[in-house]
Amino acid sequence: MKKLTLDIDDITDDFFTDTRLLGIVVSAKNYRFCWQVNNTLGYNFRLDADIEIELRKKGRKYFFPVYHYHEPPGFLHQYIYHNHYEGEFLLPEFRHIDFLWLMKGEFVEEEQCQQVIQSLKNITGVQLVVELTNEQIKNKGNLVL
């Protein structure tokens, strides 16, 4: 019998089609940061336990909360991932990044992305906001929902 294998690279490439990813350095806890984003920028991010990321490393389970926002009727979904949990990182190549903001579902224009970056920089405690390219991310599969 022929054995079938799942091609994770194709799934990952498909997931990252038409996405924008921001890395955010901020001193606030995840719930506090999302509260600031919601109140300052007018979003409605909510913790979504159904899409929490679980990684198994060193015989342990690590859970990375994901906040989700979708404003109908469009197709744009936005996610905020917490990049660290108990000393482990969702994207180990970006240990200095606290949160990852993923925009997915429709093409996000450069102007709109820059507007989000500038708005985030105005939030108290935010030290750095940088756009991350797909080529920079080694562990893209960790972000696939």
Written account of the structure:
By secondary structure, the chain is of the alpha+beta class. It has a domain at 14-98. Helix content is 22%, strand content 32%. It has helices at 8-15, 30-41, 110-121; strands at residues 20-26, 46-47, 53-57, 60-64, 66-70, 77-82, 84-85, 88-89, 99-104, 126-132. A hairpin with a 2-residue loop joins strand 3 and strand 4 (60-64). The longest helix has 12 residues, at 30-41. The model has no long low-confidence stretch (mean pLDDT 87).
Major pleated sheet: 6 strands, antiparallel
Count of alpha/pi helices? 3
> Over all CA atoms, what is the radius of gyration?
16 Å
Order of helices and strands: HEHEEEEEEEEHE
Mean pLDDT, all residues? 87
Strand order of the largest sheet: 2-5-6-9-1-10
Helix content: 10-25%
Shape: globular
Tag the structure with descriptive keywords.
145 residues, alpha+beta, six-stranded antiparallel sheet, 3 helices, globular
Q: Brief overview, please?
A:
By secondary structure, the protein is α+β, with helices and mostly antiparallel strands.
